[in-house]
Amino acid sequence: MKKLSTVIVDDEPLALKLLRKKLELCDQVEIVAECKNGREAINTIISKTPDLVFMDIQMPGLDGLTVAKQLQSDILPLIVFTTAYEQYALDAFDVHAVDYVLKPIDTERIQRAVHRALERFENGEEDNQNKSRIIGAIDAINEKEASNKGNTANKQNTEVNQANEQIERKIVIKDRDDITLLEQSQIDWVDAAGDYVCIHANGITHIKRSTLTKLLKELDPVIFKRVHRSTIVNLNSIKKVIPHTKGEFFLKLGEFDQVKVSRNYRETIKIFLTGM
Questions:
Q1: How is the chain split into domains, by residue range?
Q2: Which class for 213: exposed (0-12), middle (13-18), buried (19 or more C-beta within 10 A)?
Q3: What CATH number does the domain located at 184-274 have?
Q4: How far apart are the C-alpha atoms of 239 and 226, rounded to whole Å?
Q5: Which of 163, 173, 200, 229 has the most neighbouring CB atoms within 10 Å?
Q6: Buried b (16+ CB within 10 A) or exposed e, 74-110
Q7: Angle 87-95/127-148 helices, nearest 10 degrees?
């Protein structure tokens, strides 16, 4: 029987202990690590590449949703969120097929989540599809929160900003009623998640409703290169190259981010390094 290598994440020690006890009752699970915060979760997931993660959403610093946004689509494991979120957020999870377990956690809910994760793993669901579901739910939650606050975007301002984008080659990102114009030099890397892209810049992850193909047409092809099937990096943001298994390696970008380079795209980085 396939056992899912599993990482559990929660900032509360008692909650972490309870989650471990519940998961130890599941024969299909092998817990390989425990994490007490979002930053630790990102580092552990990158280094251990688990099949499954049970992660609390409400954590100080990097919460569970932010962790999912910051992880590269191509290495994102299956994630089950543990949460006491508002109902409208749970509705968004249901619509986008994002797995979650409500707190207080009980054995039956845990076993159901593990069974569903095992089915998805055996069906060979794409990592990109996994992140696409999560990003879609986050986008729906943000739209609902903006609606609840009575916030509306100004169409005229949007059109002006889009005009500026064409002139200055900036990337326009709309988040609720806010509009951010990112200079391309600020962007460290981008990964695709279905109908969305996650743009990582200066330690912040921005969600934009766009395909990677469409965004690539806006980016400078000299400095932005694809390093995985759904990931591109700004070559100027590379701080360190870390060897990995089977001819793959990681790129350290900025202070925290690491991006996996697949064998199919390693020549791109080799050419960059030898040409420096």
A1: 4-146, 184-274
A2: exposed
A3: 2.40.50.1020
A4: 17
A5: 200
A6: bbbbbbbbbbebeeebbebbeebebbbbebebeeebb
A7: 150
The CA-atom distances, in angstroms, between 124 and each of 115, 119, 169, 181, 229 are 14, 9, 38, 37, 16
Q: Are 259 and 251 in contact (CB under 8 A)?
A: yes
Place of tokens 């249901």: 94
Could you please state the CATH topology (level 3) that the domain comprising 4-146 is classified under: Rossmann fold (3.40.50)
The number of C-alpha atoms within 13 Å of 244 and in the hemisphere containing its C-beta is 18
Nearest alpha-carbon partner for 187 in 223, 140, 151: 223
b/e for 21-59, b at 16 or more Cβ within 10 A? Answer: ebbeebebbebbbbbebbebbbebbbeeebbbbbbbbbb
> Which of 211, 186, 189 lies closest to 265, judged by CA?
189
Segment 9-62, tens digit of pLDDT: 999 999 999 999 999 999 999 999 999 999 999 999 999 999 999 999 999 999
- Express each pLDDT in 95-137 by its tens digit: 999 999 999 899 999 999 999 999 998 887 766 688 999 999 9
Order of strands across the sheet with 204-209? 204-209, 196-201, 187-193, 231-234, 224-228
What's the Rg (C-alpha) of the chain? 19
Q: Are 136 and 168 in contact (CB under 8 A)?
A: no
**Which of 129-145 are b and which e, b meaning 16 or more Cβ less than 10 Å from the residue's Cβ?**
ebbbbbbbbbbbbeeee
pLDDT in tens, 218-258: 999 999 999 998 999 999 999 999 988 777 889 999 777 99
- Strands 231-234 and 187-193 turn out to be antiparallel
Q: CA–CA separation, 116 vs 120, rounded Å?
A: 6
What type of residue sits at position 158? T
The whole-number pLDDT of residue 155 equals 46
Residue 68 identity: A
